[in-house]
Design a protein that fits this description.
Layout: H1 2-37, H2 41-54, H3 59-71, H4 75-88, H5 93-105, H6 109-122, H7 127-155, H8 159-171, H9 178-191, H10 195-203, H11 209-212, H12 214-221, H13 227-244, H14 248-255, H15 258-268, H16 273-287, H17 290-299, H18 305-310, H19 318-330, H20 334-357, H21 364-377, H22 381-388, H23 391-405, H24 410-426, H25 432-448, H26 454-467, H27 472-480, H28 483-493, H29 496-512, H30 514-523, H31 528-534, H32 539-552, H33 567-578, H34 582-598
Helix pairs in contact: 1-2, 1-3, 2-3, 3-4, 3-5, 4-5, 5-6, 6-7, 7-10, 8-9, 8-10, 9-13, 13-16, 14-17, 16-19, 19-21, 20-22, 20-23, 21-24, 23-24, 23-25, 24-26, 25-26, 25-27, 26-29, 28-29, 28-30, 29-30, 29-32, 31-32, 32-34, 33-34
Length: about 600
């Protein structure tokens, strides 16, 4: 008993001692964190070390100290602390992350990659972090190989390599006139022909030309440029294209330069078309690949870029398509979409509406592309809601439909096709403004059902399927215009997308309009079209077909016309559970019940 009592006392004392040590270690950790935030990494390391003397198995102290060691460029010590942290917690993601950073700094690329792979194994949700880290390793390894190769070229006395160095030295001379620098930059651009020269440009401080040369900087940043400054600016843009094409490290360095970051939007808005053209070409190098887009989003305030690039729809030359391609690329980035929201209602949508109403005056190919881009942006619910509430946008869409319907040129047809697609997306919203335009819009779509372009017809039906639920008046008007007969005609022709829209349109019309129900019974003898749709593999089509059938069975003679069909078996199959959507099962069951009520022989 005495031994057990002593043992119990020892355990209690140990627990109390550990609790006191943990409190002391936590206090020292907070002091270390405070020093780290202030940039005093030496003091932070000291405090973390003192904390570890109190509690040797505290994982956070090891990882925090490793982070401070990284800041001090003591990479081996950082690796050691991460290893200790992993002994405390084998699944510590922060330890693997910091160890990967340390190995990368030590040029142990395979070990760095393995750390990041382990993070993904521990938590598959860290895929974005994993991709970013692996990309950083790839870029750093490529950078080192490039620089080693470039150094060999210099040591071998290769003329091309030496010329880059010599030209940069000449540009480093101060107090020359602006034409001297513009000419030298163009010579340098001509000398950059491959990755080796791109690397030599970087390693010989080529990107410092703006920072170190006040004449070049002043000419590049001038608000209203004279002829010489325009020439200098274009020369710089051409040089940066040459050194950044296919070179991610150079792209990163250029975009982190504050003057370049500040000037890019201004250059895109320049009154000089050649400056705009070369700026677009430079930005395209970034937008056409994922890493470049991330650099743009990270280092540029893109709030005004949607508006700036959209303005190029007014350009008759290649600038318009370049701008639209950049916009299309940028819409793949979520951060770009979030920045687009800021000025959408106040600046972007008024410009967009103006472009839509000027379809005959702008670059139609670019406008069609721009409308398509806006349609893609509607995947963002905030952007879609703002656009759907813009009365001017709806008015502009209607005007474009009128003007394009009167023109047969392919470019106008593409604009019409794009606007219909945009409206299909916008009509996922529901608001008072949409209700106000429902009758006019549905009338325009009815007129388009005669169009020779099947793509336009399909989208017109798509708009009908989404606008009609907003207004009973619109339903009455299209029913008077013979929409039921037209939809049956399109359903007979087939095509899954068209059928999906057409049967949805019929389901809306037959829901509450007796005339539509009677028209369907007349147009679809013995319900041959609906019966065929009920056997579709597309459950949306099946559900709407069952709904239409159920709505029409109250028309005298409708149920009797189905006596020789297998409609009961089809509906039983869907109602009994073959359909995965509950709504399809319900519609089939309701249709079956109405069938039995309307025709007792069932």
């Amino acid at each position: 008993d005495a031994f057990l009592a002593m043992l119990e006392k020892d355990v209690k004392e140990r627990a109390e001692r550990r609790k006191r040590n943990e409190e002391l270690a936590n206090a020292l950790k907070e002091k270390g964190n405070d020093a780290f935030r202030k940039g005093d990494y030496v003091r932070a390391i000291q405090r973390y070390t003192e904390g570890l003397e109190k509690l040797k198995d505290k994982q956070e102290l090891y990882t925090n100290r490793a982070q401070a060691y990284l800041k001090m460029q003591e990479y081996e010590k950082a690796v050691g602390d991460c290893e200790w942290a992993l002994k405390c917690n084998g699944k510590c993601i922060k330890a693997y992350f910091l160890m990967g950073k340390a190995y990368l700094a030590l040029k142990h690329y395979s070990k760095s990659r393995q750390c990041y792979k382990t993070i993904l194994e521990i938590d598959p949700q860290k895929e974005v972090l994993f991709k970013d880290c692996m990309n950083e390793v790839d870029m750093e390894e490529k950078r080192m190989k490039d620089e080693e190769s470039a150094m060999e070229e210099i040591q071998l006395g290769k003329l091309a390599a030496l010329s880059i160095k010599e030209l940069l030295q000449r540009l480093d001379r101060s107090d020359q006139n602006i034409l001297y620098y513009a000419g030298g930059i163009r010579l340098l651009t001509g000398a950059v022909r491959d990755r080796t020269e791109q690397t030599l440009f970087r390693t010989n401080n080529g990107f410092s030309i703006l920072k170190d040369n006040e004449i070049v900087r002043r000419g590049f940043c001038a608000e209203r440029k004279n002829t010489s400054e325009v020439d200098l600016c274009i020369s710089l843009l051409l040089l940066w294209q040459a050194v950044c094409t296919g070179n991610e490290e150079n792209q990163r360095l250029l975009l982190t330069h504050p003057d370049v970051t500040a000037q890019l939007p201004k250059l895109l808005s320049s009154e000089v078309s050649e400056i705009q053209k070369e700026t677009l070409a430079l930005v395209s190098l970034y937008s056409e690949n994922e890493n470049g887009r991330r650099l743009l989003v990270r280092h540029q305030d893109l709030t005004r870029w949607l508006q700036i690039l959209m303005t190029f729809v007014n350009s008759a030359d290649a600038r318009a398509s370049s701008a639209m391609n950049i916009l299309s690329d940028l819409t793949q980035e979520e951060r770009f979409k979030s920045q687009c929201r800021v000025l959408l209602s106040t600046d972007v949508l008024p410009l967009f509406a103006q472009l839509l109403t000027s379809v005959k005056l702008v670059n139609q190919a670019a406008l069609a592309h721009c409308v398509g881009i806006m349609g893609n942006l509607c995947a963002d619910v905030v952007i879609r809601a703002q656009m759907a509430e813009c009365r001017e946008c709806w008015q502009a869409c209607l005007k474009l439909m009128d003007e394009c319907s009167d023109a047969s040129a392919p470019s106008y047809q593409e604009c019409l096709f794009a606007v219909l697609g945009l409206m299909i997306n916008l009509l996922l919203e529901s608001n008072v403004i949409i209700q106000d335009f429902a009758v006019d819009l549905s009338g325009r779509c009815m007129s388009l059902l005669r169009d020779k372009d099947g793509r336009i017809v399909t989208r017109a039906i798509g708009v009908l399927s989404r606008i009609l639920p907003a207004s009973s008046s619109a339903v009455e008007e299209v029913v008077k215009g013979g929409v039921v007969k037209k939809m049956i005609k399109f359903l007979r022709a087939g095509g899954e997308t068209t059928s999906n829209y057409a049967i949805k349109t019929l389901s809306i019309c037959t829901r509450s309009n007796r005339q539509a129900q009677e028209d369907l019974v007349k147009s679809d003898k013995s319900f041959r079209v609906l019966l065929k749709l009920l056997e579709s593999d597309n459950e949306m089509i099946v559900g709407n077909a069952a709904f239409c059938l159920g709505q029409c069975l109250g028309v005298p003679g409708a149920a009797t016309s189905l006596l020789d069909s297998n409609v009961v078996m089809i509906l039983l199959k869907h109602a009994g559970g073959d359909a995965t959507r509950t709504s399809v099962q319900e519609n089939a069951a309701v249709a079956l019940g109405k069938l039995c009520v309307a025709e007792p022989r069932y």
